[in-house]
């Protein structure tokens, strides 16, 4: 075998980080870029030395493409991914997998019938930080995991994004924009979610653009801009998550897992590396004893990796005949959990999650993205 041919559909801002990283992985080669705006595809192809460019249809038809990477807007994810499957290509898609359960389930069914694979972001789960944290938990560093707390709270992307309206529209909000990172991490650690209870609110019905050529213009807020979610897992574990675009206090990337023999803080699930540290219980306190606890830092590999790592794992997993980590099934279950949270916030009722997912595998030991293995 040799490097697997990759075609990318959608060459917006996020395509830069994919192209930078994929060009450093010997096992994949980007052979064509496609976009609705062909001139934009041409500019990116010239910038990164990709030999061909065109439309999405040109990517699907390219004989050298084995894997299509779908970087289109969320509303187009299912349509583009299904077209790639119909053309006989494996698919890696940015998050979320889709915006509708039935459409996402149809995508996975069509891929399975065709003998093709679907992978879904986020692939931060494959980063050395999260992988080391998972191994520490599975080695028993905190005993049996009981519950988790996660926090993402910011003033909102309208503070810095020149065109933020889509992030407050149906299919987005902090729930579907940031939720996939946190709930993919939680499902990877605790297993499938059984049910959720959620509450949502909006700080404002209308928000203002603060930067760029449209500064001063307003746009409607279509979905809750703050969500609080309690999840109960099949394993008996529980989690409490805050996702907010309404907080003056900027605080994000917080993931704390608490177990029977200690607690662990793990890296921001939107990053590929970060701090891992464990604290043990205080034990019995007697007169004069200190309440201070000592954090034990867990050292781990800090390889410089980024977006595209999930696609690389998928092509290697196909060659090796093993499951890939950031699978379409995981993406579907996380989507189901998040849509269930939206339904709970709307109805005021606890919602039973309809889907399940098999345990998420760890990366093989010694996985080196910069090695040539095919």
UniProtKB/TrEMBL annotation:
Domain Gfo/Idh/MocA-like oxidoreductase N-terminal: 5-118
InterPro entries linked: Gfo/Idh/MocA-like_OxRdtase_N, Gfo/Idh/MocA_oxidrdct_glycsds, GFO_IDH_MocA-like_dom, NAD(P)-bd_dom_sf
Pfam families with a match to the protein in the record: GFO_IDH_MocA, GFO_IDH_MocA_C3
MF GO annotations: nucleotide binding; oxidoreductase activity
Keyword list, A-Z: NAD, Oxidoreductase
Residue intervals of the GFO/IDH/MocA-like oxidoreductase domain: 130-265
PANTHER family assigned to the protein according to its UniProt record, in alphabetical order: BCDNA.GH03377 (PTHR43818:SF11)
Protein name, entry field: Gfo/Idh/MocA family oxidoreductase
Taxonomic lineage from the root: Bacteria, Bacillati, Actinomycetota, Actinomycetes, Micrococcales
């Amino acid at each position: 075998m040799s490097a697997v041919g990759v075609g990318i559909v959608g060459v917006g801002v996020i395509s830069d980080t994919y192209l930078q990283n994929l060009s450093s992985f010997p096992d994949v080669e980007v052979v064509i870029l496609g976009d609705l705006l062909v001139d934009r595809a041409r500019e990116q192809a010239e910038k990164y030395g990709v030999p061909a460019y065109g439309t999405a249809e040109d990517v699907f038809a390219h004989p050298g493409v084995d894997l299509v990477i779908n970087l289109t807007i969320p509303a187009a994810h299912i349509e583009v991914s299904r077209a790639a499957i119909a053309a006989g290509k494996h698919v890696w898609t940015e998050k979320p997998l889709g915006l509708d359960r039935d459409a996402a389930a149809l995508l996975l069914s069509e891929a399975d019938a065709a003998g093709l694979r679907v992978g879904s972001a986020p692939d931060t789960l494959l980063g050395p930080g999260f992988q080391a944290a998972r191994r520490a938990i599975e080695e028993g560093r905190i005993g049996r995991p009981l519950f988790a707390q996660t926090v993402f709270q910011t003033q909102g992307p309208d503070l810095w994004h020149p065109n933020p309206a889509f992030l407050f529209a149906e299919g987005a909000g902090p729930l579907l924009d940031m939720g996939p990172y946190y709930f993919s991490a939680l499902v990877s650690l605790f297993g499938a979610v059984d049910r959720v209870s959620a509450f949502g609110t909006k700080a404002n019905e209308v928000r203002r653009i603060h930067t760029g050529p449209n500064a001063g213009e307003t746009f409607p807020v279509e979905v809750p801009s703050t969500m609080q979610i309690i999840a109960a897992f099949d394993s008996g574990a529980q989690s409490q998550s805050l996702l907010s675009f309404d907080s003056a206090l900027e605080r994000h990337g917080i993931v704390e897992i608490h177990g029977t023999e200690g607690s662990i803080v793990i890296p921001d699930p939107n990053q590929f590396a970060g701090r891992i540290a464990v604290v043990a219980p205080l034990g019995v306190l007697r007169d004069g004893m200190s309440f201070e606890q000592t954090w034990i830092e867990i050292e781990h590999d800090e390889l410089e990796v980024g977006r595209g790592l999930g696609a690389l794992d998928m092509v290697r997993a196909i060659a090796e005949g093993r499951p890939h980590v950031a699978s379409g099934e995981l993406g579907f279950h996380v989507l189901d959990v998040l849509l269930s949270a939206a339904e709970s916030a709307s109805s005021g009722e606890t919602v039973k999650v309809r889907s399940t997912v098999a345990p998420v595998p760890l990366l093989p030991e010694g996985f080196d993205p910069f090695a040539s293995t095919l």
